[in-house]
Amino acid sequence: MNVRTLCLAILYQADATGYKIRKLSTEGEYAYFVEASFGSIYPALARLEEEGLVTSRIEAQQGKPHRKIYSITPVGREAFIKSLFEPTGADVFRSEFLLLALFAPELPADLVESRIIERLDCLSNEIETLKKHTCERNEPADQWIIRYGLESMRFSHAYLIAHKDELIALAKPAQKPTLAAQ
Amino acid sequence: MNVRTLCLAILYQADATGYKIRKLSTEGEYAYFVEASFGSIYPALARLEEEGLVTSRIEAQQGKPHRKIYSITPVGREAFIKSLFEPTGADVFRSEFLLLALFAPELPADLVESRIIERLDCLSNEIETLKKHTCERNEPADQWIIRYGLESMRFSHAYLIAHKDELIALAKPAQKPTLAAQ
DNA sequence: TCGCACATGTAACGTGTTACATGATTAG
DNA sequence: CTAATCATGTAACACGTTACATGTGCGA
Predict the structure, then answer these.
(1) pTM of the prediction?
(2) Section A76-82 average pLDDT
């Protein structure tokens, strides 16, 4: 999915600034779609406005910089919903952690172990964030996708806990430089 | 992760042609890392050879076109393992299916249902592919990551089966153009 | 006979990232 | 005082995709 579609999806639900769209795309539920940076969001919004799919108004704030608030137009809504009827791209899962796991036999056990712990921490954090979102968000479809993500992550977390020792056992044992060499 | 690293990872385990690297990256376990196309693999291999991280030899075949078989060099092995010591990038999960799910209330129930079925089929296929790989591959680390992927997909599959009706219920009921309008 | 699997490679193109430029307020 | 948050935007650059060019053998 591309940044254009992400912007339309977010604006479909509520008005937002470019800044806010980026926040939503990096945290919580919208991160399931694309993680976008400013450098792609601002140009995407500008183009969307040119094409009449969104409009913007500027709001001055005391002290803080002005905000450019975007709204979706009826044409934008229609275009977005229409795009959902087109064939869906396949889901993507990519993991550098699994690459490390694949090469565990070539790596010291303490490196493998600390990477597992990092991964576990990361999963815990994402679980906490999503839990917060379940409370805040009221729409039932939002709830459904958040629960889906939440349960998937809980599964990953539990699986890793249960099987981490097997992976560590495959790694090179840490050389104790002191006594009992063999 | 980038295509360079993917090439080194695959060549670390066995010699391969560009064609084969692409196959491995689209099917089975290596798809956890990056899915690369010819247009990125061939230039990456050429650059890797220039830099002395891999070497190639050409093998003629009767009838079929010649094959250019790449091997990793000791320098390449070292560089690859070294890269595994560097901080790991976060795992990525992106789903167009979930975008559709988020907008279920705006979509007809039959569309939502058929997309769920597609997703389920896709998961079943991937599960079958990975099962085959478990039998073929003997290295314990390979087995470990395949099992991780396999169990994650089985979980997703089961979760979807258990909760699909809730999502379909959120969608717009299909209009029966015949009798009993209200 | 049609299309797929094998097999390599280039060129044009699109999309997105990183770094930069700018600047006030607030919490630690 | 320092870092983070809010806030917008551009330019250079990296990376990868798609389409094209080329060609054989095999199975349905």
Answers:
(1) 0.91
(2) 96
